[in-house]
Specification:
By secondary structure, the protein is an alpha+beta fold. The protein has 2 domains: 4-43, no CATH class; 46-131, no CATH class. 49% of the residues lie in helices and 16% in strands. The protein is built from 5 helices and 5 strands; from the N terminus they run βββββααααα. It has helices spanning 54-67, 72-89, 93-107, 111-119, 122-131; strands spanning 4-8, 13-16, 19-22, 28-32, 39-41. The strands form 2 sheets. Strands 3-2-5 form a 3-stranded antiparallel β-sheet, with helices on one face. The chain has a two-stranded antiparallel sheet with strand order 1-4. A hairpin with a 2-residue loop joins strand 2 and strand 3 (19-22). Helix 1 (54-67) packs antiparallel against helix 4, helix 2 (72-89) packs antiparallel against helix 3 (93-107) and helix 3 (93-107) runs antiparallel to helix 4.
Length: 134
């Protein structure tokens, strides 16, 4: 069987194609076999009040697409512009690689992959803001 396997903790919630699914009292596995399903672990979700930094704002836009709150065609330009702006600041090889992956994911309509690539930049952004507080 192919597809995504989600390992859920007791009581953990996940958003799948706009529906919130809550796990029961024990650990479990969910197999999502539908290709291109929009999936977001709610424990990983960025809340609106947390979207205050450049990377978190771009992540939040991708997350809104996954949650079904924003139409992908509306978010596409915002995501590509945000990624481009990030690429002008985060110029190291690893960051560029993640940003390239995020761009390719947006162009392919793979918003979960975009979010995953962008989330890889969060620790770097946290370190940058720790060194240069606003």
């Amino acid at each position: 069987m192919s597809g995504l396997v989600l390992k859920l903790s007791p009581g953990e919630r996940v958003l799948i194609n706009g529906a919130v699914i809550e796990n029961g009292d024990r650990r479990s596995k969910l197999s999502v076999v539908t290709p291109n399903a929009n999936i977001l672990r709610l424990r990983d979700a960025i809340h609106p009040e947390e979207a205050k930094t450049p990377v978190r704002r771009v992540c939040y836009i991708a997350q809104l697409v996954l949650s079904g709150d924003v139409d992908p065609s509306e978010a596409r330009t915002q995501l590509l512009n945000g990624i481009e702006q990030l690429s002008q600041v985060m110029t190291d090889y690893d960051s560029n690689n993640k940003l390239d992956h995020a761009t390719q994911a947006v162009l392919a309509g793979q918003y979960y992959q975009c979010l995953k690539a962008l989330r890889g930049l969060l620790p770097r952004e946290d370190r940058l803001f720790a060194v240069c507080p606003s």
